[in-house]
Design brief:
This protein is of the alpha+beta class. It contains five helices and seven strands, in the order αβββαααβαβββ. Helices cover 38% and strands 15% of the residues. It is flat.
């Protein structure tokens, strides 16, 4: 005869199966928790690396800016410089944006000259210049050829902000600015522009090395393993305070701007919307 386990044997078997399922479930949960912890550790490590990278780049920018304030404008012409930060080399040079036209500093003559160079008519250049300055200034007084809020189409996506531009891309918000115009304009303008060389040369010889009121756009670069290069641009405004002779206007890793013209600016007829 075959042995009969009865009710007690069946219950014991069910209990064993239940325990096995719980063990499997706990093992899966532990494996998932372990994977999650490993992921968090990798993310934390990446965040640490980013913070260390940014700290190295900013430290290098600080050192070069302090040296510039100490030596004067002649130090700018000696760039690039190699700076050792935490036993790693960081190169600091003038940023490409330094020589571009700063859209928050440019006056009407600067804008008219640039638009004329890009092929705009005299009337269009004057109108665009006044509209940009009206968009940027903090009042609601309309310039001769400018535009304030009441001059913008109702319900449209364009309106003057009466503040400084945050990015080059914000120029598209100006009334008669088109994407074609912005595409042609973008390679020449920035929000991280330095004091132009012609302005510096107007300062008298007795102040030839004075940095007061001068803006310099520095670029820090550090090469990583695999050939990757980290970059950080800082715009410094120099003053007369000997304890803190400059302040950082802002930092940017990469300036977002369109590049290139959609058509030949010498022949294209740009239509105002």
């Amino acid at each position: 005869m075959s042995p009969s386990f009865g009710k007690n044997g069946s219950e014991r078997g069910s209990a064993i199966v239940f325990v096995l399922w719980i063990s499997v479930l706990l093992a899966l949960l532990l494996a998932g928790a372990s994977a999650l912890v490993q992921t968090e550790l990798r993310l934390a490590g990446n965040r640490r690396d980013v913070l260390q990278r940014d700290a190295s780049l900013m430290s290098a920018l600080d050192l070069v800016a302090f040296d510039t304030a100490l030596v004067g404008r002649s130090y700018i012409s000696s760039l690039p410089r190699s700076v050792q930060i935490n036993d790693e080399s960081v190169t600091v040079r003038l940023a490409p944006s330094h020589q571009k036209l700063d859209i928050n500093m440019a006056n009407d003559e600067d804008w008219i000259a640039l638009f004329t160079y890009l092929g705009e008519s005299e009337g269009a250049s004057l109108r665009l210049a006044d509209q940009i300055l009206d968009w940027r200034d903090n009042d609601t007084n309309r310039r001769d050829q400018g535009a304030e809020a009441e001059d913008y189409p109702a319900g449209g996506d364009k309106t003057p902000a009466n503040r400084a531009f945050i990015s080059v891309g914000e120029l598209i918000q100006v009334r008669d600015m088109t994407r074609q115009r912005l595409s042609c304009l973008s390679p020449y303008v920035t929000v991280f522009g330095g004091t132009p060389d012609p302005v510096l040369t107007l300062i008298g010889d007795d102040q030839s090395n004075s940095m007061e009121g001068v803006r310099v756009s520095f670029l820090a670069e550090q090469e990583r393993e695999g050939g990757h290069i980290d970059r950080l641009t800082g715009l410094a405004l120099f003053g007369s305070n000997s304890r803190r002779p400059f302040e950082w206007v802002g930092f940017v890793e990469e300036e977002n701007a369109l590049s290139g013209c959609l058509n030949d600016t010498e022949t294209a007829q740009v239509q105002t919307p």
